[in-house]
Amino acid sequence: MTNKVMIATKNKGKASEFATLFSQFGLEVSTLLDIENHPDIEETGNTFEENARIKAETLSLELNEMVLADDSGLIVDELDGAPGIYSARYAGVEKNDEANIDKLLYEMRDVPENKRTARFYCALALAIPGEETIFVSGKCEGKILTERHGVNGFGYDPIFFASEVGKSMAELTNKEKNKISHRSEALKNLEPILRDLFIQK
C-alpha cells in the first residue's frame, strides 16, 4: 500500500476540499487535473453510490493505484429528490453553476419556507487494487434560500442554508465548511478505514 491517492475529479473546488481533508493522513493527493487531457468518465449509474463506484474502479484499474471517487449532489424534498445525481448538469449538458442555481430558484419560486428542506449528499467509493471497493456516505441538512447569499464555495452553496450553522454554505470559510459539509462527514466516516490502512502500519 502506497501513501498516494488519486481523487477522481477535475473540479478544483472539490479537489481543494479533499486535499485539505486528506492532509491529516499524510497522503500524497493527486487529481485528474494532474493527468493531461484525461477523458471524463461517463457516469451511467442510477444512484450516487453507483456513479462513485464507476469512477473509482475505472480509474483504479487504469492506473493500478488507489482511487477515491465521490458522487455528490443536492437533494430537494419538494422536487422529489431532484436535482440529485443530475445536480452538476441540472440546467443542461454543460456544467454551469449559475444556470443551475437559476433553474432551482425558479422551480422553487412558489414553495413556502417550511417545505424548502434539502440536503447535500455525498457517496465516497475507495477503490484499492485487489480489494473490495469501500463505500461511505455523508450529508448536510438545510433548506433552499430564495436568493443567493455569500460568495464563497461553488455549486449550489449560495442558495443552500446550512441548518447547523445558520448561514448559507457560501457565507462560510473553507475551514468552516469543511467542519459541516457532506464530503467532510463522508470522510469522517472513512477516517477509521484510512487510519487502519495508513497510520497503524
From TrEMBL:
GO biological process: nucleotide metabolic process; purine nucleoside triphosphate catabolic process
Enzyme active site: 71
Entry cofactors: Mg(2+)
Organism: Lederbergia galactosidilytica
EC annotation from Swiss-Prot or TrEMBL: 3.6.1.66
Protein name per the record: dITP/XTP pyrophosphatase
Statement: the UniProt record of this protein carries the keyword Metal-binding: yes
Function: Pyrophosphatase that catalyzes the hydrolysis of nucleoside triphosphates to their monophosphate derivatives, with a high preference for the non-canonical purine nucleotides XTP (xanthosine triphosphate), dITP (deoxyinosine triphosphate) and ITP. Seems to function as a house-cleaning enzyme that removes non-canonical purine nucleotides from the nucleotide pool, thus preventing their incorporation into DNA/RNA and avoiding chromosomal lesions.
Cellular component annotations (GO), alphabetically ordered: cytosol
Comment on bound cofactor: Binds 1 Mg(2+) ion per subunit.
Amino acids binding Mg(2+): 42, 71
